[in-house]
Amino acid sequence: MMISYRVHTGETAGMAVVSEPYVQLYEDVHADPSYEGNPLFSRDAYLERASAQAQTPGFVTVSAEDGSDLVGYTYGFTMEAGRWWRGALKPPPDEVLKETKLAVIELMVRDDHRGSGVGRQLLAKLLRNRDERYATLTARPVAAAHRMYLRWGWRVVGQSQPASDAPAMDIMLIDLGVS
């Protein structure tokens, strides 16, 4: 297995996340029963969100490829100072709210590549050389990824329910050490 990683910015990043290989990987990951067939995780909802998010300042995508096969990706964008997650049940700590943050939106790894370090490398490359002080993401408490983020040093700082039919999500944060 020879994995190569690519960082995509600008229009290339936006086109990547809505291309068929990315959408198919998203669907494959969310076919897991823990997602309970929730409409938030449907193909159409993903495409709608990803298309809008790709227009956000600081949007960046990192892909992992084994030859010509997409085996994983992550993406995020700059969350402006004063902004926080939609549906948050409480505001974040003041020191977090007043800063710009990197909002990590997706981290997808093909099932046959999980546990090999691909996800960790994708996230490390996304977080590298950022200007934001913090990175934040949401994760379902019952998901294996939630435990993984905790092992990697992320901490839970709140909860969110982004839509009335969406599951509850933990809001997680990590200090990137940028001052």
TrEMBL record:
Signal peptide: none annotated. One of its GO terms (molecular function) is acyltransferase activity. The keyword Zinc does not apply. PROSITE patterns: GNAT (PS51186). InterPro entries: Acyl_CoA_acyltransferase, GNAT_dom. Residues 13-174 form the N-acetyltransferase domain. Keywords: Acyltransferase, Transferase. It holds the Pfam family Acetyltransf_1. Its EC number is 2.3.1.-. It comes from the Bacteria. Gene3D superfamilies: 3.40.630.30. The keyword Acyltransferase applies. This is GNAT family N-acetyltransferase. It comes from Nonomuraea insulae.
